[in-house]
Design a protein that fits this description.
Structural class: mainly alpha
Pfam family, one: Phage_TAC_11
Helix content: 40-55%
Organism: Rhizobium favelukesii
Low-confidence stretches: 111-124
Number of strands: 2
Distance between the termini: 61 Å
Oligomer: single chain
Number of helices: 6
Protein name: Gene transfer agent family protein
Shape: globular
Order of helices and strands: EEHHHHHH
Largest sheet: 2 strands, antiparallel
Amino acid sequence: MRDARIELDWADGTYSFRLAWSQLAELQEKCDAGPYVVLDRLRTHQWRVEDISSVIRIGLIGGGLEPAKALILTRRYVEDRPPLESVAYAVGILTAGLMGAPDEPLGEGEAPSPSETASTISPTENSGLAPSTEPEPQ
């Protein structure tokens, strides 16, 4: 199941971040913009400082951290530091929230190999039709 969870080495340890539907709605409210608009601002360097701190704090809470601890960590390792140190983390967390984590499998498992599905019969073999490259009789 794709739950948009991403594990990152951040701040003083390894943390789980997750932006599920309810966290994305909260982010939208905090940043006064839809999640994809926030992602676009982060990627194009048009961000607001609240974009960075909100993505990280809400992502920590969605990942299972208590809100009070998430706030303390965000203040210490985001708001008390230069913003550019945290932009890449915010991009990664929000991208995982919108598209799924990079290591999550897509679809319904592996596709069958060509040898398992390949047919030895051409779909046009022995059709009785003239090849399409021959001119039409007049």
